[in-house]
Each structure stands twice: as C-alpha cells, then as structure tokens.
Specification:
The chain is built from two helices and 23 strands. The chain has helices spanning 2-24, 267-272, and strands spanning 31-34, 37-40, 44-54, 57-66, 71-75, 80-83, 86-89, 94-97, 102-110, 119-124, 127-132, 142-144, 150-153, 156-166, 169-178, 184-186, 191-194, 200-202, 210-212, 216-225, 240-244, 248-255, 259-264. The two termini are 48 Å apart.
Length: 273
C-alpha cells in the first residue's frame, strides 16, 4: 500500500513537472502562431487571422463584415486582450463599416512582461449600430455665386469650393467638419442644384452613403454636366442654389454586447517556423 502511494505521488510529481515544462516551451519560439478564428451573428461577422506573438507583442488582422441595414462603428480601443488573466488594452482606430461591406485593421498589443501562452482571449467590445433617424437635418440653401464660402448646421461646419464651373460642367466640393458628439449619415446623391427653370437637378456621380464620425472631417465631391435648357441653365453664368433635401441625418446608436473570442495555439505552424 505504501509503495502504491509512493508511486502515485511520484507519478503526479512527474506529470506536474511535465506540464510546467510544456507550458514553458513557448519561450523557446521566437514567433508563436495561432489558429485563425471566425465568429458570426445576426449583426456582423468577425474574421481574425495572421495571429502572431512576437517579441512581447501580439499582432493580428481583424476584419468585420456588416450584416445590418445600418452603418456599424467599431471603436477598437474599447476591446482588450486577456492573457493568463491579465487584461491588456488595444490601441487602434475607429472604423465605420457601410451596409454589407467589410473593414479590416491590424491590431497590435504590447504583451510586455506577461509570458507567452498557448491560448488567450480577445474581448471584442466597442461595436455600435448607427441607426439613421427618420427626419433629416434642416440646412439652408447655399447660393451660387457664393456670397460666402461656408455654412453650418448643428455642430457641423461645411466649407464649399467650386474647382470647375463651365457652361455645361460643374464640380462642387464640400468639406464637412463635425465638431460635435453625434454621428452624421450623409447621402451626397441627394444634393441638388436649383436652376432658374425652378427644377432641382441632383448630382449623379456618386451613390455612396457616408458616415461622418464625431470630431472628424470628410469631403464630398459632386458633379453636374449637360444641364438641359441651354443658355437659361448655363452653369457658368446663371445664379443657382445648392439644395440639401434629406441629405444629413443624425443617428440613434445601439451598442452591441461584448463577445469573448478564444484564440488557440497553432502548434504545427509554430514548430515549423
């Protein structure tokens, strides 16, 4: 009986030593690789690939696909990496993801003095659905020729320039500077020119919907050509107005629940490299 107990004790000691030794094996690898991971739900799909732990830094590519009918905003700085129960903040950029589109970014995390681990977790947080409000923001018509070069609505300042103005061709650029706290959804293809014939002609060069983040700038370019009406609608000579009907919208933001994603060691790839 004593021999059995002694044998069991030695066996447990051996197993424990083996586990400790095995857990330290990762320090022998300059680069530790991990398996790609994909997670999907009703609102988005996230794909994480090229996951490498190298020189006290964890690095990977993060791609988010928008499955909603609104813009998604991803503030990566609200996410974190959890290594051996140590939470490490993520440094990254805000990404605005249009409907049915994907955006990628490279995430880098300073692991510092925390030992390499075979598994770690990514806490994916900071995802928001930017649901567009039904009523647009009112914007005063902008006159051409321009008595001034800018206009405002709410906390957004817009600077207007006209790099091209010919009889049958005109290009207008509007630089938007959002100094407020709200996201603004912009539909540039609804911007119109009101001509002397009292008709409003919308820009046809873009169908893209834009999201303007708080404390950010964006420029839209609008083009018109071959205006009907001959001399009566000569864009180089006649007075016009830029009309903003249902162009700018604020949003009602819904934050999505954070998700924990387990990342697993790729032993085969690590030992090969």
């Amino acid at each position: 009986m004593k021999n059995s107990v002694l044998y069991l004790g030695l066996l447990m000691s051996f197993l424990t030593f083996g586990q400790d030794s095995k857990s330290e094996d990762l320090t022998n690898f300059e680069k530790v690789y991990y398996l790609d991971k994909t997670l999907s739900d009703d609102d988005y799909e996230v794909h994480i690939k090229n996951i490498i732990d190298y020189k006290d830094e964890i690095k990977f590519s993060l791609k988010i696909t928008n499955k909603t009918k609104s813009f998604l905003a991803y503030n990566s700085q609200e996410s974190s990496i959890v290594v051996n129960e140590n939470s490490i903040p993520v440094t990254g950029k805000l990404k605005l993801i249009p409907i049915s589109k994907s955006k990628s970014q490279t995430i880098k995390v300073d692991r510092n003095k925390i030992a390499k681990q075979k598994n770690f977790n990514i806490l994916l947080d900071g995802l928001f659905v930017l649901k567009e409000n039904s009523t647009s923001l009112e914007v005063t018509d902008f006159k051409i020729p321009m008595p001034k070069k800018d206009f405002n609505f709410g906390d957004v300042t817009c600077l207007v320039s006209i790099p091209v103005r010919k009889s049958q061709k005109m290009t207008i650029k509007i630089e938007m500077n959002n100094k407020g706290k709200d996201y603004i959804i912009v539909r540039p293809f609804r911007v119109g020119l009101k001509m002397p014939d009292n008709n409003i002609y919308t820009s046809k060069n873009t169908k893209e919907i834009i999201a303007l983040a708080p404390q950010s700038k964006k420029t839209i370019t609008l083009k018109w050509d071959r205006m009907p009406g001959g001399n009566a609608n000569d864009m180089q000579k006649v007075p016009m107005s830029i009309i903003f009907n249902d162009v700018f919208f604020t949003t009602n933001n819904k934050k999505l629940n954070p998700v924990t994603i387990e990342i697993i060691w790729d032993e085969e790839l690590t030992t090969k490299n």
